[in-house]
Amino acid sequence: MSTFPISMANPAMFVGTLPIAADVVVIGGGIIGVLTAWELGKRGLSVVLCEKGRIAGEQSSRNWGWIRQQGRDYAELPIMVDAIPLWTALPDKLKDAIGFRQRGITYLARNKDKLGEHEQWLEGARAFGVDTHMLSRRETETMFPDANCWIGGITTPSDAMAEPFVAVPLLAKAAEESGVIIRENCAVRSMDIVAGNIRGVYTEYGKIKCERIVLAAGSWSSLFLASHGMHIPQLSVTSPVLQTAPMPAFFEGAATDDRIAFRHRADGGYTLAPWSKHDFSIGPDAFRNFFSYLPQLRNDFTSTRFKLAAPKNYPDAWFTERNWKPDQVTPFEKCRILDPRPSQNDLNRVLATFSKVFPRVQKPQVLNTWAGLIDTMPDVLPIIDHAPIGGLTIATGMSGHGFGIAPGMANVISDLVENKRSVYGLKHFALSRFQHKSVN
Known about the structure:
Number of strands: 21
CATH topology of the largest domain: FAD/NAD(P)-binding domain
Strand order of the largest sheet: 5-6-4-14-15-16-13-19
Structural class: alpha/beta
Oligomer: single chain
Largest sheet: 8 strands, mixed
Number of domains: 2
CATH architecture of the largest domain: 3-Layer(bba) Sandwich
Radius of gyration: 21 Å
Strand content: 15-25%
């Protein structure tokens, strides 16, 4: 079986010397960092994006590729509604290259309780102008004639999809062509802070002077901040995914019930995954943040498998360094790419469920399997806020929601960087909702 579609052995795309100074340094080359850097560049700022490994080498290329309004927390929903037109406004050639298609996303219900949850969400979501509507049993059977296990559902025709491991590097290339400087295999080791304000960053290749930083480092953000005496309750979970070989299309959108998620791919195959199964590795941050996550654990305990330790050099591994100096090799260089092993048992169950749900559909041939490390917060909402350190903006904890909302979030983050008043209410993303320790 093949490995993850992005070959980490390939040479880096974004190479070259570093500039001495920039208006803004973005730390992290996932989709949030890439699109924020691009947006800041459009606003006339000089921007350098530093990625310790590969652009989208971690969760941004390993997600399901859903561009989803449906089911969003109401705090995210207005930003996501505005993100859809930003996706559709991309040049046609770029949209074709990244596999962007508006084929809708559907949530399916096997019982009245689940159908009621969907109805309840829609009742509150209508105020945001979504084109979501409920599906009857007959409509569901018409949409999925090869299945007969759902009593109804909810669908959003304007929701879309793209191919993540293709999309993010191509979006980064577009950002670079517009003037953003992007460097792969270039870890930011620490920040230069003078009197509580940003004065630059120390990378493994030297210092870049700047007065503004965007931290969009995904699962690594907590470790980076902790090295400066600032703590956020960020943890990460591992979730498996598989890619099938091309097969006859039985559905051209994306859908899920409470067991299995599936999306038609631009290459003719399908992306399949368990809807809510993940592994969590216990480490020092897990103990530190235990009480913050207790409500979430009570509500979702059966979906989580606990492991005693993360792999060596992972952000919350037991022996990962927590403190270092700017001239020392850091954990970011010791682990360039988080490449967790997927749970084969979970993927076997996905295939078995697929065959049970769609008995008349061709049995999928598995082409690739992988897993991603999803950074999350206790309330499953990100931190998008200024930090106590002057000039630092934090954009992390996307909790598996980051791919689709990224164009909208890039605008929100860029407004924060420029100290502009946001058109959105951001209190649900505020750093102050968690206890934290400020830098002296």
